[in-house]
Amino acid sequence: MASLSKAGKAKVLIWEAQYMVGKEPSGALLLKVIIRESHIDSNAMTAMIRTKLSSLDTYIVTIASDITEFNQYGKLLVQLLHTRGETTTDLLTNLFKGYAAASDQVFRSYIERKLETWEESGGDDDTMSADALMALANEKFKIMKNNGTWNVPSANEEKITALSAKVAKLTPSSNRGGKAVSFEKEKKRMTSTESSKEKKKTPPGRKEKPDFFQKRPPEADLKKVKNWNDAEWRYCHPNTGGRCTGECRTHLSSACEGKAFKPEKKRVHAETATTKKKAKRTEIKLAKAYQAIRDAGLQVDDDSDSDSE
User: Fold this and answer.
1) CA 102 to CA 104: how far, in whole Å?
2) Does pTM surpass 0.90?
3) Residue 277 located in a structural domain
4) Number of structural domains, the chain?
């Protein structure tokens, strides 16, 4: 127990019942618990290190694509694996993936060429080890840093920046002081202006119609009287005894003269179209039947009355 660190003791003490015999501790049982917990801790740490190695492309973004710091981080993870008796066989692949996520386009192109060379060799290029790739990437990074070409915008990026600046100048501006405003604010201002104009068009003293003019009331409220604009309104419909097709009227349904009756033209048109389609299908069936009889060598009198047939 004295050989354990504070963290090690904290992990072992929670299993005290497993190495105590009565009130006395057992050295053999304690050693068993220590070995077990150390093995579990080592496996969990190994899995975490391997996960971090496979996520180098995510890590490089968090350090602003500093290749020197990136290489140091990768070497540290490999060293931690070695101290646990583990090795990695996909370090080179993870490095290529991490470098490909760097922010500089020229550097990424450089790494892509190295990757193509390695792939063409079938992975048998002894000169392209993980350490060699790290050295080449770090050297390229330092040269570009010294020349001031690291993360310099390309020609296309400069064009995009210039176009963005032109678009910003075309952003709608308010008439008050000429200050630029956002598109959403300008849209809101124009909408409010249009709504105020609409309100001005509404004649004074006229109230807006309530919702029950637009919606059919529930079955239980079909005959319910509603008050609006100093008048009583009733839902006029054949179901309520009227002749209208579902409008709110001031007359009684029993006294409805049907002046607001609207024939269902669409329905009539739809029924007519359906009838025509059925007739067309009947003609096609008759034509096929005639043809079948002719093919059978029988004589058919085409002028015969259809009812006698």
Assistant:
1) 6
2) no
3) yes
4) 3
